[in-house]
């Protein structure tokens, strides 16, 4: 029996490239869906054991829809993260040349990332916004009943792997402005089993500040800094009820099995019970977490034993 | 002689509604442009004295393109902020009924904000992404050479004011899911003159953490908290050079003419010289800033006078 | 069978007045000793179940010898504190008048506390330092083999209760300069049983800063402040090995059975394992400890249960 | 014309040894007085340009009477500090042997420092408390009208230099228990001229916590720690009005001419206006003050210039 993994399809997307890195998913069923909400819906409904979703981009930052979904859909957990380098090619129907291109279909984020090249190479182009790069690229090949092209676009921005799946012509390669662009993907499930600690882990949570202590973000963040815990990501997202109210997405270095992380989580919870634990999981870069020895598990255990000893005597 | 103000047009946009709130702009030239970059470009090039741009939305959070532009284009200053309540209507060519609607043109952000209503009222609709709501609405009225509709959309999501300018039929009103939605706009200029302190002010800045002290965000934020300065906004945006490196957009309550703000700014600068002062300006809500008396100007002046007195004696 | 309590005697001392406040000591054996070291020695050797010693004076501060003994003698615990108002009378052999007084015997601390009155009433007096006020007062009544007064003093400073025990003449009352003077006494034992929490408790400890982080006192004290724990006493005492190295005597509001105190103690221990828990015991003033509700036991338990729940699922 | 310097005499005291280290005092008039109060009284009254007083002892800690005098006598300033190693000899009238010694005269502090040796060598001795070691030693040589010794003591504890001035026999040398004992002396004046910064300086102050924020000691101390300023001494002394109210004596590394120190002093003053600046002066050990470069004068000046630039433009 096989497990099903949902991902933003169709084949050839960066999300699929991320899914290829998920060891447990190899040889299983891969279910291509059309957006992050659908992928997470599969997981919640049990149609899939897990979904791969983009959560952060080195150029554009946090993926809002992913962050908002993780904050508001109960029971989701991140159990892995994967990095995929981002690059783009300009594709068209076979036979098309660069000089033929007037209208370019592209997801707004991809379009923005290729601005420099587009303005230089095709200064007079028009942009046709698309909700999926791969989808708009494949639409270039579709025809209507009369045999005319279904899309009004002449070309599309797509990941290089597109040509593994579709018979498209590559008009230009490496058109992304920032060659170091990378996207971070999360493997999301509803299982509450936490991946074992590896010494190179990350813990994610989402928290709202208590309403009666607005502006006390620093106090919440100090729960980590006073325990020697490094924060690798802090993003804010509007809660949506009124301007100025935010929830915060926080990634810290370490695993909930680490004493200092468990202690910091308790500190955060005491500060605000509106906190969602998103998971502890191995870092994609496998870099061991460094921290001051005074926050080690051994030191925590000794301190707890000391106080327990004092209390047990009475 | 009149001054020119740039804004995201065409007439009928929320940005135009914000510009209507700018007292100095009344009776001046209003220049409609097609995106935020163009608006700021006008200001930098001197084609306009100021531009109004959306910078934060109560549903979607910070406007990334605005934040990134303010962070990277030198010499920009915010001199005012304005709030515009957001609501949407569904418009179509006169004669169209709701039952006729299959394809809906909308900017992805507006589309996302109307999901609930759309799924209930038009479960089988298709979405045609647009780069401008007003523009896609007006395109409903355009015809090609053959006299056929130029747009493949049947309807568009647009601000209610659209009907003041165009002959469109309103198929549904109040279709936004969150009736309290509001967008914050900034009036941006290149003048370094800082608006006078009003007692109800906000100060905005953008800062990068020093590279050699990654993760020290808390320490930077403490520059404000230890001086009794409340932070009303903290957003992070990727710097773009590598995953995990961010700059932070910070709004705090108070004016650079307030001693505690000037002192906190110095503290931030000592922490990181990669800091951009975006301006001090009156808060849109005109709520006076409250703070502990021990951080008042008088207390600051007394303390400075005390130390100055000690030093002058020697 | 009776228990023995050691105290700085002889009868009539302020320490005896403190011992009178110790409920458990009523009807037991009271053993008068000549100094604090002897009193604590009785406790350590098992000759007494407890000792009452002066530990703080509202005029002179911490009693160094008591603090140093508590820091260096292992196994001592404070189980109660008692306040005794301090006042002094000037006593002499019956028949002596104020005009006859030239030399005044007094412990240096008592002498210092009566400076104002002495300089006004007896400007030409001499001071004979004594190691015990009551003892030097009683010596006024002793005679040598020849029948001459054994003491060269004409008068002595003593507590008012001296005349309950000895046939001395009171030359002047209320001679202490500060009428509000009060001394704090501790009931010290070697039992590790901690008095039950009363809601109006104090916890005492003595800690050394780690040698490799000199100057980090603030960081240690933050273990309390970040948990809403108020510190009512902070005294430093030289460790003695080199100038500038101190240990710190700390009293905080609360009981080790309070979650926030137990948590803070763990924090201190992680910071420095050179910490001595001196005890949790009812405050002499019986004032309930006030603290922010977010540091309540319930909040601590909820936070711990939350993290425990997360961990148990994995 | 010569200047007068007051010190705790008579000749041979440790204070005199400290005065010998004061360069400006060489060849001037040295005025021996009998206690610290008298020495400071000379300075206040203008009888002396400065006084040398003991302020801290590596064994016994802060000298309470000195700390209280500096806190309560207005207008005093410390302009130098000096370290004197402490050692003691046991002296007696010529002809006396150790076996003859029954009663030993000694200041209680000196007596306490020699406990170990005394208990080992003279277990059956009696202690005659004295207000001055040197004085009680010299009294050994005095005789009354009948030619009998004026003192009932057989021996006295005194500094080794005593034999440079008096014809006393040394019965034992090096009798202090801690061979590393050292006392810190301050040179005190009423001049408000602050000694020039040397890069190896210390700044002393005395502060009371504001009455309405009891327990906020940590917040005051953070004024230093958040500016990278190391605190080398923190002592508390009762204010005297009620138990539990203290003032704090603070020594920090650095000079008021250092930007970070001046800034920290302003922070302290904003926190509590009940603060006394006792002076900035060269450290006795001449060790250069080390601090993080980000708190350097240059960084402070740049930050101030940045904000000044922003303000001047408006």
Short structural summary:
4 copies of one chain form a homotetramer. With 314 residues, chain A is α/β, with parallel strands linked by helices. Chain A folds into 3 domains: 99 residues, Periplasmic binding protein-like II (D-Maltodextrin-Binding Protein, domain 2, 3-Layer(aba) Sandwich); 84 residues, D-Maltodextrin-Binding Protein, domain 2 (3-Layer(aba) Sandwich); 118 residues, Alpha-Beta Plaits (2-Layer Sandwich), CATH 3.30.70.
Protein described:
The structure is a homotetramer of 314-residue chains. With 314 residues, the first copy, chain A, is α/β, with parallel strands linked by helices. Chain A folds into three domains: 99 residues, Periplasmic binding protein-like II (D-Maltodextrin-Binding Protein, domain 2), CATH 3.40.190.10; 84 residues, Periplasmic binding protein-like II (D-Maltodextrin-Binding Protein, domain 2), CATH 3.40.190.10; 118 residues, Alpha-Beta Plaits. Helix content of chain A is 28%, strand content 28%. Chain A contains ten helices and 15 strands. In chain A, the strands form three sheets. In chain A, strands 1, 2, 3, 4, 5 and 11 form a six-stranded mixed beta sheet that branches. In chain A, α8 runs antiparallel to α9. Chain A is elongated and about 90 Å long. Chains A and B meet through β4, α8 and β13 of A and β4, α8 and β13 of B.
């Amino acid at each position: 029996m096989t497990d099903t993994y949902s991902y933003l399809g169709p084949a050839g997307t960066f999300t699929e490239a991320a899914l290829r890195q998920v060891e447990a998913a190899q040889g299983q069923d891969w279910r291509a869906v059309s957006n992050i909400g659908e992928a997470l819906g599969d997981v919640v409904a049990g149609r899939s054991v897990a979904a791969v979703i983009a959560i952060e981009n080195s150029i554009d930052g946090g993926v809002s829809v992913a962050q908002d979904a993780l904050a508001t859909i109960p029971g989701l957990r991140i159990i892995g993260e994967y990095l995929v380098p981002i690059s783009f090619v300009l594709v068209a129907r076979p036979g098309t040349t660069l000089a033929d291109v007037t209208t370019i279909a592209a997801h707004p984020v991809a379009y923005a990332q290729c601005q420099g090249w587009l303005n230089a190479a095709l200064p007079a182009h028009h942009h046709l916004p698309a909700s999926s790069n791969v989808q708009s690229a494949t639409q270039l090949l579709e025809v209507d009943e009369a045999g005319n092209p279904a899309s009004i676009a002449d070309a599309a921005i797509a990941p290089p792997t597109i040509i593994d799946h579709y018979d498209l012509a590559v008009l230009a390669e490496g058109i992304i402005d920032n060659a170091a662009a990378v996207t971070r993907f999360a493997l999301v499930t509803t299982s509450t089993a936490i991946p074992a600690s590896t010494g190179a882990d990350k813990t994610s949570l989402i928290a709202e500040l208590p309403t009666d202590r607005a502006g006390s973000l620093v106090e919440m963040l100090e729960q980590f800094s006073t325990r020697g815990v490094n924060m690798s990501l802090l993003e804010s997202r509007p809660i949506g009820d009124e301007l100025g109210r935010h929830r915060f997405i926080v990634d810290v270095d370490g695993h909930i099995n680490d004493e200092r992380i468990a202690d910091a989580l308790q500190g955060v919870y005491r500060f605000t019970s509106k906190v969602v634990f998103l998971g502890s999981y191995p870092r994609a870069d496998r870099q061991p977490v460094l921290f001051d020895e005074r926050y080690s598990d051994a030191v925590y255990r000794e301190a707890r034993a000391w106080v327990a000893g004092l209390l047990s005597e009475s």
